[in-house]
Amino acid sequence: MKCGIVGLPNVGKSTFFNFISNSKARSANFPFCTIEPNYGYTIVPDTRLINLKMLINSIKIIPSEIQLVDIAGLIEGSHEGNGLGNKFLSNIRETNVIIHIIRCFKDIKIIHVENNINPIRDKEIVDIELQLKDLETIENKINRLLKINKKLYKQDMLDTLNKIHVFLKQGKNIRMCPLTENEIDYIQDLHLLTLKPVIYVANTNQKHEDYNISSLQELTEKEKAPFFILSLDEKKKYLYKSKIGEIINMVYKLFNLKCFFTIGKNEIRSWSIPNNWTSYLASSKIHTDLKKGFICAEVIHYNDFIKYKSEEKVKEAGKKLVVGKNYLIKDGDIIKFKFNK
Predict the structure, then answer these.
(1) Which residues are within 8 A (CB) of 272 and not within 5 positions of it... i.e. 6 or more apart?
(2) pLDDT in tens, 280-320
(3) Is the pLDDT confidence value at 160 over 50?
(4) What's the pLDDT score for residue 10?
(5) Can you name the residues that pair with 229 across neighbouring β-strands?
(6) Neighbours of 150 (CB within 10 A)
């Protein structure tokens, strides 16, 4: 699962990426400093791992991770290839969740591609470019369908495409469009850019000068999108890290993932899986041999383990489960798989 960091040039994308991933992507005061996307990973903060480590005195913990992509800055006309447009848009297509950084600070030392600070305009520039690219994708798909025999496609699919086409023409992101599960299935393979979940981050200075941030937040609320205010030059790093942790956890939530744990004296590890995975599917995350030879799984939920302090006492309380292939994993399950070697 990938999270893309997007925005206009010189808004703080690479600075944000470097801190969140502990990387050293180039950051400089000119547009398109980032040309090739930078890739990195960030851990998902989870205090449950620390609590388990303290309880069983394990040697190390291994948290879940999110892959991050720092993508080149977008400008007006990117959908037509202006700037690094086509490259930018293809990089976004590969991601599952977007963090959109919006500049809300003034600094004469840092160039702004539009020559002044206007967060709402900047958000709209990115939105419009992504919408226009999606419009192009939808129109191409409609034209291809109309050229083939009607028996080879469902009318419902064409109706869905036309519905989205009208929505995009109104200047709205597809994620705001009321779509049924069947309609979403019809367009899943198109990897539409404005269908992807987005988190908006207003990058302010330490004075938190108001460049229409409240109006910007109102716009994001209409999309029901998470919104964070963050100062990338924050000197109080503990506040910065706390807000970064909230953003990472929100990304994880938008991935529609959950995690289960494996525990032992050598390590405690978090494993990320889709929300609808069973114990049988989850076993393959650890090793394919577990899935091939799956017998059963022993399950203790994190809350019960913390409450009773040991596996033996959990078992005595009747809270330890032995489950088969179809058991639906719950977030925070501690699992031991049994399998034929």
Answers:
(1) 1, 44, 64, 65, 252, 255, 257, 258, 259, 285
(2) 999 999 998 889 999 999 999 999 999 999 999 999 999 99
(3) yes
(4) 84
(5) 202
(6) 10
Edge-to-edge, what's the strand order for the sheet holding 38-43?
A: 38-43, 65-70, 2-6, 97-103, 198-204, 227-231
Residue 80 predicted with pLDDT over 60: no
> How far from the centroid of its chain's Cα atoms is residue 124's Cα?
21
Unique residue bearing structure tokens 């394919």:
288
* pLDDT tens digit sequence for 195-243: 999 999 999 876 656 677 889 999 999 999 999 998 877 655 656 678 8
DSSP state, residue 196:
S
What lies within 8 Å, CB to CB, of 202 at 6+ separation is: 102, 104, 119, 213, 216, 217, 227, 228, 229, 230
**In whole angstroms, what is the distance from residue 136 CA to residue 80 CA?**
10
Residue appearing with tokens 């489960």:
321
Least confident range of 5-9, 257-261, 317-321? 5-9
Q: Which amino acid is at 14?
A: S
CA 158 from chain center: how many Å? 29
Which residue in 6, 19, 9 sits closest to 95, CA to CA? 6
Question: Whose structure tokens read 């938008």?
Answer: 254
> Which residue do the tokens 């293809």 mark?
90
